[in-house]
Specification:
Layout lengths: L2 H26 L51 E2 L2 H14 L3 H4 L9 E4 L15 H4 L7 H14 L4 E2 L10 E4 L1 H10 L9 H6 L6 E4 L3 E2 L5 E11 L2 E12 L2 E5 L5 E3 L1
Parallel strand pairs: 1-3, 2-4, 2-5
Antiparallel strand pairs: 5-7, 6-7, 7-8, 8-9, 8-10
Amino acid sequence: MNVRALLLLLLFALPLGVQQIDAQQEAQNPPIPPNVPQQPAATLPGASTPESGSRSNTTSSKSTPAAGTAPGQTLPLPPIPMAPTRADDSYAIYSLLMPGSYLLNLGPDNNQTWLVADATILRGQPGDRVPSARRCIQPPADRQQDFQAVFEDFDQHKTESIQLERDFQVQIPYQLLNQQQRDSFADTRTASGPAPDAATADQFRGAPGITYFSQVYFNLDNSLALVYMQEFCGPKCGEGQWIALEKVTGGWVRRNWNVCTLAS
């Protein structure tokens, strides 16, 4: 074989060899399909985050599979304690919003006691049917830049569920309900469900429904805030909405910056 023939043979064989190597690497490391959310990594206690100027909860837990979670869906982390730097303002906001106008409108006989989920709910997760906070909260033009820091705080902490404590400051007795208790309450509001026993009926007597909160998200100086609030009173009874708030002299006030509300 002359030199020219050998060079031509090598020229055509080289791309084939490269393609074979690429195919082997792709089989070992298949590309991630587009739009498939990845499982968030658990944060070790005391670990820092890469986002500068942001605040994080100081305690975290490893993630565990959740029953009924769809393949590829982001799994929620177990509830963690609320960061001390967030607690006073968060509970002040929760207390201000309770019980919610929807439940309050059910009348005084149904507002003898209030029920609150004992862990915050997650919003902005894959498959969430609730409109995004950025779509629903539209501050006036001169406040949009200030509120951007709140949205960034939401982005950082939206996969965290917070364990709530009895730090609400309200005038009416209230109960924090765990998942089993919330399921029991839901059974009492379902016509097709089993009739509640006497103890269950007595526990929820005078309660209009259950109030669910997300974590409260803040800007850096805790002067603006965002929270999702959901009220449940039955299969076709309830309301959910994003709420924007601002701290003024005297405490927190709601701002009418929400352009969408969900009712069941």
